[in-house]
Write a structure and sequence with these properties.
567 residues, Elongation Factor Tu (Ef-tu), domain 3, Alpha-Beta Plaits, 8-stranded antiparallel beta sheet
């Protein structure tokens, strides 16, 4: 692999510092591109590039250290000189994956973020996800676009209820999971108890790869079971730089660490006896999870985990299509949209659709087919993502996550392809649990309100339901949790200049319906019929009891669960 940037070359001294955020990864450089343009991009080359891709998500409970771990991955991969700043000759820029102002103010992740960077001659597509339950729908969509996940657990808490269902989704999809027990520099639960908890909670057996020497709060280092070495860590100032590592022989470890080393050795011997050892087949099938222990804050154990992403996590493979066939990575270009994000660049108020490349070779500007609309689609404005920042993406291979800027025709779940038609399965949706009204406080800001409402609706996080007979009436917003409404109001105010008043409604449950049933439901008390932008009709009920009575009394009416797929 060669990178087409060299900071010491005089011919690129005038490159914008922003561009330095994006190492333009070009395996075989211009040669590969010229071969494609000549029409002889071979399946072997596509396979070669695909094997160098790792696309994974980081999932965790809030405050487990997920975002800190993400930034330390950037440190260890050489994307930042110190944790929190991106390397640049002329400036220092924030490398936080939490790019939204509200995320930085509250110290939580609200929206998933894509970071593409290189490490050990591989291209990593890292998707940092929200941890809070109220934003879990965004995480669900991300899980549809990755090949593996890193599960981050707080050593003092283990698996917590808010994000248990996210782990269950990984298990249901047989998704390979790497487990990282974080914050071992603080008082913690017993590590063996944590292993039992994981298996009992999500039914996945952990197979320790690294094991701590010293209890939580007195973290000396880890035993790497792959090499049988004791790796001792040293702290750095505020964890801003890579933690020095020292390989210590078992003889010296016994002398220097005493009882803590003896206990760790005995526990590792126990794993050998019960065959709690990494199995590639078990891991790739989602039955077992390699386990790592460390501290993202102090950088202890971060290198071991990042190496495991390269060494253990799978490269992109065939993807199932809607008709049950498998799309091989060497087939013509295909991709699907799993996320839409408005206003990542506040100065331009733009809109980015995130696509995951499933097969073939992507070249910026190539003409592809928009499957849902059955029309040609231009990819002129393709970008590589680094949090909120971006750089022009000249090409891409299976597993790459790229952004398409201001592609207003794209929705979550859309398929793009070249050659013969293909469509990928729809993205799962959550059923709204809360229903609120929203209106602009200042009537003169109605235009801004409507614009913001429409653009944020396209993100699919909050479902905007309207009275199709009175499109200017106050819309009803449906969401999973209360905090999502707060985010919605905050973004309308700060991104579109429309302060909104939001109030809860009497509606507690919704079902999808059709026009015939809708006409009948309108005559019932405690109900209302609203529609989404694509024309789907929803029957809202003021109680679950009323819904139950209606379905019992009129079993032939169409009252289905709220749409669980997009499209």
């Amino acid at each position: 692999m060669t990178l087409t940037r060299d900071l010491d070359k005089p011919e690129i001294q005038n490159i914008s510092p922003l561009w330095l955020l994006f190492p333009l990864i070009r395996i075989r450089g211009v040669y590969a591109e010229s071969r494609y343009k000549a029409g002889i991009m071979t399946q072997e080359l596509i396979q070669e590039q695909t094997k160098k891709r790792r696309t994974f998500a980081i999932i965790s409970h809030p405050d487990a250290g997920k975002t800190t771990l993400t930034e330390k991955f950037l440190l260890y991969s050489g994307q930042v000189a110190e944790a929190g700043t991106v390397k640049s000759r002329k400036s220092s820029r924030s490398a936080r994956s939490d790019w939204m102002a509200m995320e930085q103010d509250r110290g939580i992740s609200i929206a998933s973020t894509v970071l593409q960077f290189s490490f050990r001659e591989h291209v990593i597509n890292l998707l940092d996800t929200p941890g809070h339950r109220d934003f879990s729908e965004d995480t669900y969509r991300v899980l549809a676009a990755v090949d593996a996940a890193v599960m981050v657990l707080d050593a003092a808490k283990g698996i917590e209820s808010q994000t248990l269902k996210l782990f269950e989704v990984c298990k249901a999809r047989n998704m390979p999971i790497l487990t990282f027990i974080n914050k071992w520099d603080r008082p913690s639960l017993d590590p063996l108890a944590l292993m039992d908890q994981i298996e009992q909670s999500i039914g996945v057996q952990t197979t320790p790869i690294t094991w701590p020497v010293g209890p939580g709060g007195d973290f000396r280092g880890v035993i790497d079971r792959r090499s049988n070495q004791f790796v001792r860590f040293s702290r750095t100032s505020h964890g801003a730089t890579i933690a020095p590592e020292e390989i210590v022989s078992p003889e010296n470890a016994e002398i220097e660490e005493g009882e803590m080393w003896t206990q760790a050795e005995e526990e590792v011997a126990l794993f050998d006896e019960i065959e709690a050892t990494h199995s590639e087949e078990g891991f790739l099938s989602g039955r077992t999870s390699p386990l790592f222990v460390g501290s993202a804050l102090t950088n202890f154990g971060v290198r071991h985990l990042l190496d495991a992403v390269i060494d253990l996590a799978p490269s992109p493979g065939p993807r199932e299509t809607s008709d049950g066939d498998m799309r091989e990575v060497t087939e013509p270009f295909s991709a699907f949209v799993f996320k839409v994000q408005a206003n990542m660049d506040p100065s331009h108020r733009d809109r980015v659709a995130f696509m995951r490349v499933n097969s073939g070779y992507f070249e910026r500007g190539m003409q592809v087919t928009h499957e849902r609309l059955n029309k040609a689609f231009s990819t002129k404005f393709a970008t590589s993502m680094f949090g909120a920042d971006r750089g022009t993406a000249e090409d891409g291979y299976p597993g790459d996550v790229l952004g398409l800027v201001n592609a207003s025709d794209l929705r979550i779940g859309d398929t793009l392809y070249a050659g013969d038609p293909v469509v990928f399965p729809p993205i799962p949706r959550f059923e709204p649990e809360l229903f609120w009204n929203a209106r602009p406080v200042d009537i003169s800001k109605t235009k801004q309100f409507r614009k913001g409402l429409s653009q944020l609706d396209e993100e699919g996080v909050v479902q905007v339901l309207r009275d199709l007979d009175a499109p200017t009436a106050t819309p009803v917003l449906g969401a999973v949790g209360q905090m999502q409404f707060e985010v919605f109001a905050h973004r309308l105010e700060h991104e579109f200049g429309a302060v909104v008043e939001m109030t809860p409604t009497a509606w507690v449950v919704a079902r999808r319906t059709d026009e015939e049933t809708a006409q009948r439901i309108r005559d019932l008390r405690g109900t209302r019929v609203l529609g989404s932008l694509d024309g789907t009709l929803f029957a809202l009920f003021d109680s679950t009891g009323r819904l139950a009575r209606t379905t019992d009394e009129y079993p032939d009416w169409t009252l289905e669960r709220v749409v669980e797929t997009v499209g």
